[in-house]
Amino acid sequence: MSSSGVAADPPIASPYSGHDGLAAQLGIDVGGTSIKGAIVDLRTGQLAGPIHSAQTPDTATPEQVALLVRQIAAAEQWIDPVGVALPGVIVGSCLRHAPNLSSAWEREGALDRLRTPGDAEIVLINDADAAGLAELTYGRSGRSDNGLTVVLTFGTGIGSALLHDGDLIANSELGGLLVGARRFEDVASGRAISDGELTPAQWAECAQPYFDQLEAMLNPGRWVLGGGLSEQFEQYASRLKLTKPVDIAHLGVHAGIVGAAAAVKRSGSPEALSGRR
Prior knowledge:
The radius of gyration is 18 Å and the shape is globular. The N terminus is likely disordered. The longest helix is centred in the C-terminal third of the chain and has 19 residues. The protein is built from seven helices and 16 strands. Strands 1, 2, 3, 4, 5, 8 and 16 form a seven-stranded mixed β-sheet that branches. Strand 6 and strand 7 form a beta hairpin.
């Protein structure tokens, strides 16, 4: 967690409560490697405070992750609704297709374990959809007039988000795309790059068939690539042979946090993007 420590008891009041309405919001991004949270200025999409980070437990059960979410909220003395991005598909009260977390997330009621110190509302969103929402809200790629924008996030796995005409099409799982007998995220994720010590050229050779397949299937007008490799991803992305423009994610490694925060604001609208707890 952050060097400032974690509050032992639920706070009495949030220092951000009532600050210009929804101008500030806590977003938390749960990943297979780490869990990170920060206050986000919703007017700009920029972080408005320090990042609180903890290593994701190896077992990553709902109870373990919920404890870390509460600790991050307590570290910010936050008692208002919290946006939480999760690496899987939110279905009712459980999380599907989350290979980097415990299988216990598949059980009915698993998401009910997530609580804040003050038992405030938690708004849930898929982590790649959070990155897509961040691009849609604050990045120029989300406002593209080129039809469909495909956002791919490369981290422990590969997440995806589809943006079309100002809307987020939630719960796409393009990281599971098969070419031959191998899944996209098994050969081209950040973990695959690390485990295989892939050079940018080697990564592009592995990834190219999957991009070719996606171009044929979806005919996107633009690609946005990001995730944990955002800060160095241009050297990888530049090796790809694609017919449409490629942007590196505008918000980089913070896109999941920003998108989780933005999901809270969007959750009150008729086109709510995420679950609530």
